[in-house]
Amino acid sequence: MCSWAPLQLALPRRNRSRIIITTRRGDIAYSLKDGSVDVHPIQHLSLEKAKELIHRIAFPGSRICPPALATLSNEILGKCEGLPLAINEIGHLLSTKGEREPEWKKLRDSLASELTSHGRLANIAKVLILSYDDLPYHLKNCFLLMNTFPPNHPIQRTELIRLWIAEDFITEGNNGKELEDLGEEYLNELIQRNLVQVWQMDIDGRPRTCHVQNIIHEIVLSQLQDENFCEVYPDQGTFDISKERVRRISIHKGDLGQLCPNLRARALLKFGRSAPCQHSIPIGYSSLKMLRELHLEGANLDMFPADIEELLLLRYLCLRNTGIRSIPKSIGKLKHLETLDLKQTLVRTLPKEICHLSKLRYLLVYRYDIKDYVAFNTIKGFEVAGEITRSANLRKLLFVQVNKNHKIIVAMRGLRELRRLGIMGLRKEDGRILSETIQMLRNLHSLNVAAENEAEVLDMQEISHPPRLQRLYLNGRLERMPIWISELHDLVRLRLKWSRLDQQFSNPINILQDLPNLLELQLLDAYNGDQLDFNAGKFQKLKILELELLQQLKMVIMERNSLPCLQKLIIRRCGQLEQIPVGIDDLSQLKEIHLHDMPKNFVSMLEKNGGSLYHLVHHVPLIRSYDAQNGGRWDVKDLSD
């Protein structure tokens, strides 16, 4: 960076010349951007372009892949994931194999070893390993841990950061930043360095899930063993661990067998389902006394493994997507536990001993039951026999079932560092106590509140709102739209469900239209009016608008210069809606329209062949209708060009 300024002075100007400088780091490239410097990110090749490149190199004469090799060619390309460097080098190696199918199969099956050998493909490793060698120490460990996940496995941002925290890869500095915020900075830097790819982006521009490309993953696997970072077992089978100094164990498909009695592993990560077991996992926990992370997502468990209570150093416990139904009182023995992840299990009650976990940072106990559509009771939370927790460190608490227990709401006032809260089973008379509690939680970023049932009123009128709130989910009847929502200047997502606001007393659009950072708005059975008006110049940043089960709605009007950034429009089960929103033809950024169980005459007006209103939406690249069928199937129809 410091060398750029004097170098730039020596470059010729205004003579129509072009000088190209390459870098592996996107952050450096964009920091140099100015009037005379443009940044051109090198995109991964599409499948068609990748085929064209590898066929041109592998078959220099005809440039056409023989049909007999087409499947193998696609499988090899799948491992390259559009990376030009990999496609180029592999293409040249394939050109030496001729059209001999056994040779192509051999390369496909031995690609990992070829990458780390001294042959032609080693050039790929040499180039990519430079990016790894250039990492600062704290990022190397973070990156290596990502490679313990299976290839092509989307890694959730929040889950990854929780593991980094448990490993002490993220430590609090002098700048006072939260560990979670530092974790996001670390992940963004790995993405900027092109070592990590975003799998799915969140609405606010943060990566929701990410992954390491196949080629890079294959190269780093050898690094994991060379540095004694982790033993990875990617294949089916039962594996015996005989090395005493194994620090981490990652099993992608198989099961653990016998363990070395003096094993000092600090992490066991197991992915996917295994042989059924009920009372404990046959992996010899007595050999794993030093474990700090135990990740058993998707394991075939019906009961909480009894031996886990002996892992007294455990910081991270994930039993997500298992069949366990209860948690024993002995959970209170895990004094160092920071993460307890029981999402998508059958656990509905936690013992009172949970309050002894004074270091707990993340408590996730809930399940989604979604069929064709979201119902009011889609989310199943948990009850607790006593206090929730005495941990002042708690950052995430999802989803607590109140059920007339006011003490639970009052106890939350001590959770001053809480950033995300989900609370359910509320009644109208809980409103005052809840409001007093929420106004004390000044660090809340996300709040999800649900009434006891869809007829119960949520009293949310008198809240002194948390100043940093970014996501708000209100589930239940609202007698009127809370005025304080209009003051949430950091709000990016708002979902109002079963609010049933009366058009005579409360129009949600008027209160929400000036929110400066709102990106996503969902109204599900939230308004009883027959018309929604989006006024000119309003909703300046909204990207996603979802209208569902607005049973009286007949007309939506989008005035000129409203919703200028709208990219996705979703309309579900609005049976009285007479036509597509008026003014939709002015939405130049609109990319998708999705219509779920809408009347046939409504859908037919938008069909590209003869639809009377198709001319209003012909600029939208993707238009689809969905009709629910028996057996949980959907009839999907493409209405776009």
From TrEMBL:
<dbReference type="Pfam" id="PF23598">
    <property type="entry name" value="LRR_14"/>
</dbReference>
<dbReference type="InterPro" id="IPR042197">
    <property type="entry name" value="Apaf_helical"/>
</dbReference>
<comment type="similarity">
    <text>Belongs to the disease resistance NB-LRR family.</text>
</comment>
<dbReference type="InterPro" id="IPR055414">
    <property type="entry name" value="LRR_R13L4/SHOC2-like"/>
</dbReference>
<dbReference type="InterPro" id="IPR036388">
    <property type="entry name" value="WH-like_DNA-bd_sf"/>
</dbReference>
<dbReference type="InterPro" id="IPR032675">
    <property type="entry name" value="LRR_dom_sf"/>
</dbReference>
<keyword id="KW-0611">Plant defense</keyword>
<dbReference type="InterPro" id="IPR027417">
    <property type="entry name" value="P-loop_NTPase"/>
</dbReference>
<dbReference type="InterPro" id="IPR058922">
    <property type="entry name" value="WHD_DRP"/>
</dbReference>
<dbReference type="GO" id="GO:0005524">
    <property type="term" value="F:ATP binding"/>
</dbReference>
<keyword id="KW-0067">ATP-binding</keyword>
<dbReference type="GO" id="GO:0043531">
    <property type="term" value="F:ADP binding"/>
</dbReference>
<dbReference type="InterPro" id="IPR044974">
    <property type="entry name" value="Disease_R_plants"/>
</dbReference>
<feature type="domain" description="Disease resistance R13L4/SHOC-2-like LRR">
    <location>
        <begin position="283"/>
        <end position="596"/>
    </location>
</feature>
<dbReference type="Pfam" id="PF23559">
    <property type="entry name" value="WHD_DRP"/>
</dbReference>
<protein>
    <submittedName>
        <fullName>Disease resistance protein RPM1-like</fullName>
    </submittedName>
</protein>
<dbReference type="GO" id="GO:0098542">
    <property type="term" value="P:defense response to other organism"/>
</dbReference>
<feature type="domain" description="Disease resistance protein winged helix">
    <location>
        <begin position="149"/>
        <end position="220"/>
    </location>
</feature>
<keyword id="KW-0677">Repeat</keyword>
<keyword id="KW-0433">Leucine-rich repeat</keyword>
<keyword id="KW-0547">Nucleotide-binding</keyword>
